[in-house]
Design a protein that fits this description.
The protein is of the alpha+beta class. Helix content is about 25%, strand content about 25%. It folds into four domains: about 180 residues, no CATH class; about 120 residues, no CATH class; about 110 residues; about 100 residues. The longest helix has about 35 residues. The relative contact order is 0.09.
Length: about 550
């Protein structure tokens, strides 16, 4: 996912006519004040994790306190015996604090259903505990031994969140030269759409921004050279792949936007992407409201933008959450992304059982599919390119894509050799050869493989030169024949002799690090640039227009 953070470029902001859409006032599910604590807990003592009494005591009643520490498994955190508390350990081996908090918030139902009573520090350094006062404490175990542990914890509200009804809004784009009474700004927390008075548009940028903040404005509609969309005012947001409009639950969204990594305000606008599937934007307002937004359209002639959004709100006892209707396009995109993820997993499992070779065709992974429906979907929608590849190839090789989505011309889902998936925008089709048929894609993959192999061999040469210099008074060898032993692998040495122009004779390893010691002459002859090896042992691809800097023509 790509994260973007925004404050409007006020000098470029402009207002024009719009259609206002009435929306109901919501109770926003705000990101609450952080209650964070630390304490040392000793074996056979108890600790109350709630904000009112985070004090360790030796004599306790089970109903008063939340956790204790003992020596089992080298040090174990456990909930008080006989209590009705709940505990769940985070299974990730390398988790950051923000990730643990987001996991806990989005996993509330799993925590409530957990029957675990303890977590050893060897097992996990993070655990979520539902406390005696009904809060959720996300606990990090710091330094520890059998007799004591340093704990950090953060207390979160466990109020369940739901989505408010989806609102569809059309706003005019602001224009300081043509003031209008039509709404061109929105307060997501209340649902108000607002027209900006002419005298406000005439203010200096600082005064204009102050007016927006004082009036609770979260975004304004604008058109710029980058496109038409929304500019945020103290609005933090992230960008998710198209199709995820209905995916995150309200609790998951609250957890995501509660992370400190999601707290930055982007200076990029949220744009309508002409001619392609639209991204989805989880956001958090300056007042702490959390929601999700997707652009629907932009009319440059009328100078308006249209979008939909829904807010997260606390689940009041007498109020049911709105059911999120997944439109057919979002459903199609979401299933493609989900099943391409599973395809990547199946390909990896197959390779692990077949000497790292990818399956020659989709038929080979029928037994690895989750269902016959999924397998049939693969056959109908997936263009598979992994035949003949191994997992040792460059991880960025394209191994499959959704040919049904590609046919729409609005983007597609792609699977790469390292099993990550990505949404490929139409403007990136040529990068992967998607506009020119299967053979063009295979040629692109072959080109990436050649580049990667060349870089790998030159890197090996660089290490060999360093090893040789260390044993020869800092001198580099006069010829490649002198470092055959240092290269190690015979296939790489033979490739180097056949394809590499060596320039290191007479150089000392202590000379200028940016000196060129070798380059791929075979690649240079193709006229598209080549890989260079420098004296500091780093390898870099040099484009044709930069070759003259190193005294080389476009081709030898």
């Amino acid at each position: 996912m790509k994260t973007r953070f925004v404050r409007p470029a006020i000098a470029a902001v402009v207002v024009i006519t719009a259609l206002a859409v009435g929306v109901e006032t919501l109770r926003p599910g705000r990101t609450p004040k952080t209650n964070a604590f630390s304490a040392e807990i000793r074996a056979n003592t108890a600790l109350d994790l709630d904000p009112k009494a985070a004090i360790p005591l030796r004599k306790t009643q089970p109903e008063d306190f939340d956790v204790t520490w003992d020596s089992e498994a080298g040090g174990t955190l456990r909930i008080m015996p006989g209590s009705s508390l709940r505990l769940l350990a985070l299974s990730w081996r390398e988790a950051e604090w923000d990730e643990a908090v987001g996991w806990a918030i989005s996993s509330l139902k799993k925590i409530q259903a957990s029957d675990a009573t303890s977590v050893s520090a060897r097992q996990s350094r993070y655990a979520a505990v539902l406390t005696s006062e009904g809060n959720m404490a996300v606990v990090q175990i710091g330094s520890y031994n059998e007799s004591r542990a340093s704990l950090l914890w953060r207390v979160e509200n466990t109020s369940l969140c739901v989505y408010a009804p989806t609102q569809t809004v059309t706003l005019a784009c602001v224009d300081p030269d043509n003031a209008t009474t039509q709404p061109c700004a929105i307060d997501f927390d209340t649902g108000r759409t607002v027209a900006i008075p002419p005298q406000t548009l005439a203010l200096a940028p600082e005064g204009f921004l102050d007016w927006l903040q004082q009036n609770g404005i979260d975004a304004i509609a604008r058109i710029s050279q980058d496109g038409a969309g929304l500019a945020g005012v103290e609005l933090a947001f992230q960008r998710l792949e198209p199709g995820l409009w209905a995916k995150p639950s309200a609790m998951e969204l609250r957890g995501l936007m509660g992370l400190s990594s999601a707290s930055h305000q982007s200076r990029d606008p949220i744009l309508y992407q002409e001619g392609q599937y639209q991204y989805v934007y989880p956001f958090r307002t300056g007042d702490g409201g959390v929601g999700i937004l997707q652009m629907l359209g932009a009319d440059r002639a009328a100078r308006t933008v249209e979008f939909r959004y829904r807010m997260v709100q606390e689940n009041a006892p007498d109020q049911a959450g709105a059911e999120v209707q997944e439109d057919p396009e979002s459903a199609m995109l979401a299933r493609s992304a989900d099943w391409f993820n599973r395809l990547g997993r199946s390909v990896l499992i197959y390779a692990s059982q077949h000497e790292d070779r990818l399956p020659p065709s989709l038929e080979e992974i029928r037994d690895f599919a989750d269902s016959e429906e999924q397998y049939q979907w693969y056959l109908a929608n997936v263009e598979y390119l992994g035949a003949g590849l191994t997992v040792a190839e460059p991880p960025t090789l394209l191994t499959a894509y959704d040919k049904t989505l590609l046919a729409t011309g609005k983007g597609t889902v792609a699977l790469f050799l390292d099993t990550h998936i990505d949404f490929v925008e139409p403007k990136e089709f040529a990068k992967y050869g998607l506009t020119d048929g299967i053979e063009a894609i295979k040629e692109k993959n072959a080109e990436l493989s050649r580049l990667a192999w060349s870089e790998r061999c030159l890197n090996q040469l660089g290490r060999g030169l360093r090893t040789y210099a260390n044993s020869n008074q800092d001198r580099l060898p006069q010829s490649l024949e002198e470092i055959r032993q240092q290269i190690g692998r015979e296939d790489r040495y033979l490739w180097i002799v056949e394809n590499v122009q060596y320039l290191g004779a007479g150089l000392l390893f202590s000379q200028e690090p940016s000196s060129v010691v070798a380059y791929d002459r075979t690649m240079l002859a193709e006229g598209q640039g080549t890989n260079f090896l420098f004296l500091d042992a780093h390898t870099e691809f040099i484009e044709p227009e930069r070759l003259a800097k190193y005294g080389l023509p476009m081709s030898p």
